[in-house]
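FW: tagging you since you asked about this chain on Friday. Here's the raw sequence from the shared folder, copied in full. Didn't touch anything.
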Amino acid sequence: MIAARQFPAQAHPPTTLTVFAAASLTAAFNEIADTLRHRDPGLAVAFNYAGSQALALQIEQGAPADVFASADDHWMTVVKDSGAVKGEPAIFAHNHLVVIVPKANPGHVRTLQDLARPGVKLVLADAAVPVGHYARVTIAALEKVQGFSAGYADNVIARVVSNEDNVKGVVAKVQLGEADAGIVYVSDVTPAVAGAVTQIAIPEAANAVADYPIAVLRRSTSAAAQAFVDLVLSPTGQGVLARNGFIPVRTPH
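HL: got it, structure written out here
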């Protein structure tokens, strides 16, 4: 009797989830994805981290993505108005801004007023990038705070030597000493960054509040898309965001 031939079992390809997310979410979302993969070992999560404006353009042009997480309402609205969003976006976190200077402080920037001093090299994200927009709103608001002179905002903007495509570019230039100061999200001063920079706090009255919305995209066919969004909004996901410097919208754990 001839034994039946045994064929190796075919491995099923892993389910892939593609998330387009603002660059400032890198550390937090990587951690959240690890939690989701632990729950579903057959899931592969691919991230595209960039400025929200660049991600919105890619989505509008048909780039394959399952989830979009923006650093502001504006670019989420652009994507939603294009018909690419399934359902309603949900705000899942907030963020604040902080000024960072290199540890060696070659520009001698010790106060927010110093940002207006001639010769200071300031780096911001481009105005189209959410953090760049928030930075400019904050600079304008500071001029109205006691202790800041008339013309402060124009003088600070005149010190900008580079406009970056995303917040990570701002952090990198300050870390490397290529700029005397930069304005970034509080969440971007990670433990790896904190040792290379000094932070200058911005008064709450002038500090812009960044809202982060998330949504499943209409072209998504991944069953894991909604699971990822739900995890981000869950107490577990909110706890990850809080540990990474964000302001959660729900009670974390």
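FW: The longest helix spans residues 26-39.
HL: agreed, and DSSP finds nine helices and eleven strands in the chain.
FW: great, closing this out.
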